[in-house]
Amino acid sequence: MSATLNARGELAVLVACHTFLVAIPTRTVVRLFMDEEVTSLRAEKHGALLGTVRAAGKACAAWDLGVLLDLEPLTRSWVVVDVEHGGARVPIALRTGACAFVTQVRPEASLPGRIFRARGRAFPAAFAASSLGAEVPALFGLWLDVARLFTDDELAASIAVIGRGEHASVKP
């Protein structure tokens, strides 16, 4: 995390993830959707990989943030991000809890390195929810580095599932 980010913060989308918030930097967010605005193209449940969804006409690999963190699934919103992999951008729709709001976040607290087993690197810092200056439904939040959330194998699986989903008929 850069000294610049620590000093002044960064604009982020805050989403609920059970009892805590996750801050996703707006520079990584393509678009936000409510659950009913996303259409399932092809269901392929493999752990946190849900298959393919279409969001605003774009096919995306669908992943559940809760399951990625070894927690229960989430169901309220979708955050579409593009993740760099092998020189290409992989469109991923990340299913999250409710989108709380968008605000400037200063993630100043460090976390234990293995807080989420395999995904600890994706959360380089945390912040007190009280520092946001608004009433929020959590005590703390975690800063998400989207580029570190997925393994190379998961990104390859995302590319494959998008290819299969683009050829599937739309299912209700």
Compact summary:
With 172 residues, the protein is mainly beta. The protein has helices at residues 3-8, 65-68, 152-166, and strands spanning 10-17, 20-25, 29-34, 38-46, 49-55, 58-64, 77-85, 88-96, 99-105, 125-128, 140-143.
List the helices and strands and how they pair.
Elements: H1 3-8, E1 10-17, E2 20-25, E3 29-34, E4 38-46, E5 49-55, E6 58-64, H2 65-68, E7 77-85, E8 88-96, E9 99-105, E10 125-128, E11 140-143, H3 152-166
Parallel strand pairs: 2-11, 6-8
Antiparallel strand pairs: 1-2, 1-9, 3-7, 4-5, 5-6, 7-8, 10-11
How would you portray this structure in words?
By secondary structure, the chain is mostly beta strands. The protein contains 3 helices and 11 strands, in the order H-E-E-E-E-E-E-H-E-E-E-E-E-H. The strands form 2 sheets. It has a 6-stranded mixed sheet with strand order 3-7-8-6-5-4. Strands 9-1-2-11-10 form a 5-stranded mixed sheet, with no helix packed on it. The longest helix is centred in the last third of the chain and has 15 residues, at 152-166. Mean pLDDT is 87; it is low at 1-6.
